[in-house]
Every structure is written in structure tokens, then in C-alpha cells.
Design goal:
- There is one protein chain.
- The protein is α/β, with parallel strands linked by helices.
- It is built from 11 helices and 12 strands.
- The protein folds into 2 domains: 4-98, 2-Layer Sandwich (60s Ribosomal Protein L30, Chain: A); 105-267, 3-Layer(aba) Sandwich (Alpha/beta knot).
- The relative contact order is 0.14.
Length: 271
């Protein structure tokens, strides 16, 4: 079936795209993917189903290989699309995805093969969408199994988080947790080592740690860092050594260094 034309701003078919607000979408169990690269990821590599897609003729032509034959594609001229959304969509492509239920941590851990290495990344109260998106991208690149997020952490499925992650937030599962400390206790029961990243001078240097195949890295918000409860709940506190002129790193940069150092690939011995 070819794409269906949208000519008017009040067309009921474009309701999910009208004056896009992430909080409103979340209440409707939806999220918004923006841009050709990210929408392509949603359609071809994602954990999530698609509700509908809104594209300009140019974007439709450029993405014909993944859009042809779909029954959920809406076609609108650029001016009409901008009017529907409420701002200029320079990439000419939006897709509404359908959120899926988030499993509790213990249920997710049951799905991890006990004989294989696993890396988890725990984000405590990170409120910057750029940082969250960047961390998802790094975590996917280096084979993390999932991201754990406290309820104060910004939504990984917010449009900006997805865009900054280059679609990684659509491919890597995330688990909501009530607190980092409680999550650490459960992870310890399941055989995980938990490491809290901190710039504190008395923390262990990251490179000095012995390799461990089942590991969770804890990262806190820039500025305050991890809460005292999270630091106390972790099995060890670790730091990334920097030069004297810089006392700490952006949390996304610190995450990239630590995740790369702890990637499960180092334990891979074949199928």
C-alpha cells in the first residue's frame, strides 16, 4: 500500500505528531523518533513497534527501501508537517514508536545466560538528555547488556535522547530501578561486581582493578555525582586518573572510558 496523503493540520491520523511534547506522548505509551537515520533504526533494528510514520515526499523517496509496503506511512508536504508538529522538521521524517512494558530488574537478570560475561551500566539521577543519549550509544558499541536508570533519570526514549544516541536507545534495553543501592544489593546476590565511578582521590584507579566478567558500572549526575547511598552500596569506588589541570570528566566521557575498559569482549572466547 502506498503512503496516505495528509493535507490538513487537523487530520485525526496525525494526532500523535501534533504539537509534539514528550510528556504527552509518554502518557499515551508512545515516543517520537526524529530523522531518517533514527527512524530507519526504529524500523529495522529496534526493540519497539511502530505506531505511524510522518514523512515529506523527499524523505519518503530517500527511505523507500524501508517504507514501501508499510500501511502506517503518512505523507505531508514540509509546510504541512511543520504546522502539525509545531516547529520546523528539517529532516522531514518522524515516527511514533510504541513503548513496551519495562521488566523489573530481577526478571531481566533471569534472562542473562549465567555462563556468559555481562556488563550493565547504572545511571543514577542523570537529567541531561545529551549525556544519557551519548551513554546509550557507547554502551551499545561495547556490548553492554542493558542500562539501569533510576526514576529521576531522564527518559531514554525522549526524542533528544534517542537522537543523540543515534538510535542506540531503541536497541539497548533499559530497566527502571527505585534506587541504586537496592539495585546493587540485588546485583551482588546475582554474582555481579558493582563499581561506583567517582573523582574522589581515595578511590581505586580504574586500570588497577582485576577483570571481572559480570560487572555493573554506576554513574551519577554531573556536579553532585553518585549519592552517598549509591557509593556505600557499590562493591568498590573507582576513579579515572586525569592530569592535574582537570579534576573530573563529563559523565558521558567518563562512561565511555569505563565502558570500553570493561567491555565483555575481553572475555569472549568464541561461540
Amino acid at each position: 500500500m502506498s503512503a496516505e496523503r495528509v493535507e490538513h493540520l487537523d487530520d485525526p491520523r496525525v494526532a500523535p505528531f501534533r504539537n509534539v511534547r514528550d510528556r504527552d506522548l509518554q502518557r499515551d505509551h508512545l515516543f517520537m523518533a526524529e530523522g531518517r537515520f533514527v527512524v530507519r533504526a526504529l524500523l529495522t533494528q529496534s526493540l519497539y513497534d511502530t505506531h505511524s510514520i510522518l514523512v515529506t515526499p523527499a524523505a519518503h523517496e530517500a527511505m523507500a527501501d524501508v517504507l514501501d509496503g508499510r500501511t502506517d506511512v503518512l505523507l505531508a508536504d514540509q509546510q504541512v508537517m511543520n504546522g502539525i508538529v509545531g516547529f520546523d522538521i528539517h529532516r522531514g521524517c518522524l515516527a511514533a514508536g510504541i513503548r513496551r512494558p519495562v521488566p523489573p530488574l530481577d526478571a531481566f537478570l533471569d534472562t542473562l545466560p549465567p555462563e556468559r560475561p555481562a556488563l550493565l551500566v547504572l545511571l543514577e539521577d542523570l537529567t541531561n538528555h545529551d549525556n544519557v543519549g551519548a551513554i546509550f550509544r557507547t554502551a551499545l558499541a561495547f556490548d553492554a547488556a542493558a542500562i539501569l536508570v533510576t526514576r529521576r533519570t531522564c527518559d531514554p526514549l525522549y526524542r533528544k535522547s534517542i537522537r543523540v544516541s543515534m538510535g542506540a536507545a531503541l536497541r539497548l534495553p533499559f530497566i527502571e530501578i527505585d534506587s541504586a543501592a537496592h539495585a546493587c544489593a540485588l546485583l551482588h546476590q546475582r554474582g555481579f561486581t558493582t563499581l561506583a565511578l567517582t573523582p574522589a582521590a581515595d578511590a581505586l584507579p580504574l586500570e588497577a582493578l582485576a577483570p571481572t566478567p559480570r560487572l555493573a558500572l554506576l554513574l551519577g549526575e554531573e556536579g553532585p555525582g553518585l549519592t552517598p547511598e549509591a557509593l556505600a552500596g557499590a562493591g568498590a569506588r573507582v576513579r579515572i586518573n586525569t592530569g592535574d589541570c582537570v579534576d573530573s570528566l563529563n559523565v558521558a566521557a567518563a562512561a565511555a572510558i569505563a565502558i570500553h575498559a570493561c567491555t565483555p569482549r575481553r572475555y569472549h572466547r568464541g561461540p
